[in-house]
Write a structure and sequence with these properties.
This protein has 366 residues and is α/β, with parallel strands linked by helices. It contains 14 helices and ten strands. The model has no long low-confidence stretch (mean pLDDT 96). The chain binds 5-amino-5-deoxy-1-O-phosphono-D-mannitol (M6R). Catalyzes the first step in hexosamine metabolism, converting fructose-6P into glucosamine-6P using glutamine as a nitrogen source. This is Glutamine--fructose-6-phosphate aminotransferase [isomerizing].
């Protein structure tokens, strides 16, 4: 079942190019110029009446939702809030019939997510589920479903489900943009063309996975580590940090790079590892200045950068290079080295990679 891999997690990391292809599949028109989402039952009028979107999920699915917020706001220009499901219900969110509530759940059985879905429906919202399990509770109860075709995910640490959720959000964002006319046909086609490159680009990254073994082995010797980034890089930093904590048991924190000097910089001491994600062009200069702040305190910085960013490479101690893509799509690439670092750090520490302590694959209690 592990197809020759030592662990399910590693197999599932390597399944990602296929998961991307399958999730995009027939949802992209043959001419590559539009997104076809037959599974959305909302009429164009209903879609136009939506004035806010809530994305609700737990853990890794919540982190995918944070990327989803950027994507929908950028492409469809509708305000989006993202909440963890265990908080959502208890803060009396403003939900009306013009609210689109998107619940994201790999298993479709997470108790808090399901409860949030029910509350949203009770308030008259249209509920769209992004889930990996056909026929799951979430899938049965939602009004519409976008299924991620990642295939079964066995390892407790979510990898291919997360990246397939990103693909689902890109498809949904583009679909909404088409229907609402918030992007030109050329803009939509350009994003689709770049999306089609993603599976091959993940394959390129996976070919370099050996380079991360040594890095992860060094990180595994530390008890604390930081991830920093801005914009979409921050959303991915949160996911990288969760993955690392979950399976390597190394304490880590993800910080919006600009927030460091509001407190956390006090924790940066000589030799501490910092993983700096710097893939967003408009924010690059700012991120580099934050990298300099941690470097000045002795941090050992690994940069995750797009090909060709030589200036950035000069400001860090080492770099993992990812292939060029649109800023909006970088999460689908930049998370992969972070998944591999977590995997190899967990191995280096002799942990049970697929079954980390205290955790269950599916959290069916609130
Ligand atoms: O099945 P779900 O997507 O609803 O699960 C949500 C979280 O429990 C899950 O993503 C968890 O955070 C993962 N173990 C993280 O790797």
């Amino acid at each position: 079942e592990k197809a020759g891999f030592d662990h399910f997690m590693l197999k599932e990391i390597y399944d990602q190019p296929k998961a991307y292809r399958d999730t995009m599949g027939s949802r992209i028109s043959p001419d590559g110029r539009s997104v076809v989402l037959k599974e959305i039952s909302m009429t164009p009028e209903q879609l136009r009446s939506i004035n806010r979107v809530h994305i609700v999920a737990c853990g890794t699915a919540y982190h995918a939702g944070m990327v989803g917020k950027y994507v929908i706001e950028k492409l469809a220009r509708i305000p989006v809030e993202t909440d963890v499901a265990s908080e959502y219900r208890y803060r009396s969110p403003i939900i009306t019939k013009d609210t689109l509530v998107i619940v994201v759940s790999q298993s479709g059985e997470t108790a808090d997510t399901l409860a949030a879905l029910r509350e949203a429906k009770r308030c008259g919202a249209h509920v769209l589920a992004i889930t990996n399990v056909v026929g799951s509770s979430v899938a049965r109860e939602a009004n519409d479903i976008i299924t991620t075709w990642a295939g079964p995910e066995i390892a407790v640490a979510s990898t291919k489900a997360y990246t397939s959720q990103l693909i689902a959000f890109y498809l949904l964002g583009l679909y909404m943009a088409q229907e609402l006319g918030t992007q030109t046909a050329e803009e939509v086609a350009a994003v689709i063309a770049a999306m089609k490159e993603l599976p091959g680009q993940v394959e390129e990254i996976l070919k370099q996975s050996d380079a991360l073994k040594g890095v992860a082995g060094e990180m595994a010797k530390h008890d604390n580590l930081f991830f920093i980034g801005r914009g979409l890089d921050y959303a991915v930093a949160l996911e990288g940090s969760l993955k690392l904590k979950e399976i390597s048991y190394i304490h880590s924190e993800a910080y919006a790079a600009g927030e460091l000097k509001h407190g956390t910089l006090a924790l940066i001491v000589e030799d501490i590892p910092v993983i700096a994600l710097a893939t967003q062009h408009e924010l690059l200069e700012k991120t580099v200045s934050n990298i300099k702040e941690v470097k000045a305190r002795g941090a050992n910085v690994l940069g995750i950068a797009l090909e060709g960013e030589l200036e950035l490479q000069k400001s860090v101690d080492s770099t993992f290079v990812i292939p060029k893509t649109l800023d909006l799509l970088t999460p689908a690439l930049s998370v992969v080295p972070l998944q591999l670092i977590s995997y190899y750090a967990s191995l280096a520490r002799g942990n049970d990679v697929d079954k980390p302590r205290n955790l269950a694959k599916s959290v069916t209690v609130e």
